[in-house]
Write a structure and sequence with these properties.
The protein has 18 helices and no strands. By secondary structure, it is mainly α. The chain has one domain (22-230, 248-484): MFS general substrate transporter like domains (Growth Hormone, Chain: A).
Amino acid sequence: MLKTEKKEDIDTKATHSKLTMISFNLSGTMTQWVYASMGFFVIFFYETVIGLNILYAMTAFVLYSIYNAINDPLMGYLMGKLSAPFEKTRHWKRFPWIIISLLPWLFSFLLIYAVPLDWNPQVDASYNLPVFFWMLISLCIYDTCISLFEVNTYSLFPDKFPDIDERRTSQSIGTVLGLLGTTLAAIIPPMFITKGVQASYRTSSLVVFIGGIIFFLLSIPGLWEDKQTIEQYKKRADTLDREKPESFLKAAKTVFKFRSAIARFILTFGWQVAVVQLQYSGTYVVSFILDAEADTLTLLLLPMILGAIIAAPIWLSISKKINDNKKTVVYGGLVMFIGFVPMFFVADLIGWMISFFIFGLGLASQWNLENPIMGDIVDEAAVTTKKRQQGIFYGYQSFFVRIGHSSILITIAIVHILTGFEEGAPTLAELKLVSPDWQLAVFGVRVHAAIIPAIILLICIFAFWKLYDLTPEKIKANKEFLQEFGL
């Protein structure tokens, strides 16, 4: 009987078109468009344009990180347990929540850069506190909305693309489209920014808002929960109804029982710190190491993006040929580390461009296999627990992504304090006037842009290699089990 059911599942399994995969992954284009636009400028904006004291900025990020530590996994848990009216009547589980989260998320992005123009802590130090609260509250709203959006888009991925080759192909397309979002973020928003002019950041954020809406509209056909996906939900519905609901803490303990999940979270933290640290530090590199205009940031980022676009199909081919996702992401991570090494000492634009290009070659491996690896982990958990709980797993993945992002400002703040970097100096000429040792302050930029993230990345790659225990044979056996028992 079980063999008959398995045969039926194989015969009825749909294969999605490349167009559907492109549409689905345009949501990643939107995410990277917004992520990158914030990452390139948010710290630089608050520290050098607004002039917020770095201790206030660091405190805001620490409090935001505490909130983040609760928000992401809790959101994943709630999405796995809540049964909204549209789920009961139409069997939609993810798409409505994605719609609900979209506009609040994009409006919260506008809010981050909407600090009142007359709040100037460099002129009146009493404005440090209002700016601090503006930064903290807007970031927390932003994080809540993006967590709701991402938990549901990530959780939709393994249900939408259950086949391992389909996952790899879709994620390879997603890598290229994600890079498109980053590329456009590196080119378009800076065009509307005038160096040191606060109001220009509002205009730039409005451009990002409009672009986000356009990308989302294009992603709707791919994010739509089709007949195949809904049928999978229905198969599990009876089982889920009979299950005794787990508490949040018990569900969290379940996640950390799996070595593969712990390994994935550590690697996610490491490579996110690496790439986002470069994004956040890029404006500092341009202003204080290269002493160039803001649009030079595009010349730094485009080689990284070009490298990732070139490497994406190569990593896909490698992953299919050796059929080992673990080895593929480790090899890619080591290429990223090699890209960091020249950044320790290069001083000219060409040297930085070459370094970013090498880094991008390795980065493509992480983007290519992020969701396929997590899909394999969710499958392993389903085999062990006999139920699907991807929401809590993707919630914790989002948590480690956010922790990686949050640690970046803390790193920058500590380095700037130790090296005497002064707030309110958006150019090298101004930094020389106000910093007690401007050369040490500039070296600090190199420390937080390359040296620290390179060390963190290498440690995380080693930890992943030691902990990750899903072999190709085990992954194949898990998929056969899930297919047989309709999970």
